[in-house]
Amino acid sequence: MEVITVEAQAFRELMAKVNVIAKFVIALQEKEKARESAENEPMENWVDSYEVCTFLKISEKTLQRMRSSRVVKFSRIRGKNFYKISEIQTIREDVEE
Q1: What confidence score (pLDDT) does residue 36 get?
Q2: How would you write 24-84 as a 3-class SS string?
Q3: What is the SS3 assignment for 1?
Q4: Domain ranges of the chain
Q5: How far is Cα 14 from Cα 20, in angstroms, rounded to an integer?
Q6: For residues 31 and 38, what is the distance between their CA atoms, to the nearest angstrom?
Q7: Which residues have C-beta within 8 Å of that of residue 85, sequence separation ≥ 6?
Q8: Is there a smaller number of Cβ atoms within 10 Å at the N or the C end of the chain?
Q9: Measured distance CA(19)–CA(13) in Å, rounded
Q10: Handedness of CA 85, 87, 93, 95 (dihedral sign)
Q11: Residue numbers in the chain where pLDDT is lower than 50
Q12: 49, 34 Cβ separation under 8 angstroms
């Protein structure tokens, strides 16, 4: 076993640097945990055109006009349109005002 002696001031500086590195690593770990938990949250629900028309009490043609004029955001998957529920609720609130 080898014994190394270090001046007290040098030891304190070394310990301060170790503490800074430890805090940095802990912060990175917390960010990673937060990112992972955000990814594990359930995705927002999507509904199809029929459900939107039923909820808003509008026709398919009216919904098509809303899409064309970009009043409502949608995604098309295999030729079928889907809408976020939060987007539809926002539109409904705007109409009710």
Answers
A1: 74
A2: HHHHHHHHHHHHHHHHHCCCCCEEEHHHHHHHHCCCHHHHHHHHHCCCCCCEEECCEEEEE
A3: coil
A4: 1-41, 46-96
A5: 10
A6: 11
A7: 44, 45, 46, 47
A8: N
A9: 10
A10: negative
A11: none
A12: no
3-class secondary-structure state, position 15: helix
Q: Match 């500086």 to its residue by tokens.
A: 13
Task: Name the pTM for this structure.
Answer: 0.53
Cβ 52 vs Cβ 88: under 8 Å: yes
Q: Which two tokens stand for residue 96?
A: 């009710």
Task: Of 95, 96, 85, give the one whose Cα is nearest residue 62.
Answer: 95
Q: What's the one-letter identity of residue 49?
A: S
Residue 93 main-chain phi, psi, to 5 deg: -65, -40
pLDDT of residue 77: 92
Do 45 and 85 form a contact (C-beta atoms < 8 A)? yes
**Vertex 70: Cα angle to 55 and 63 (nearest 5):** 35
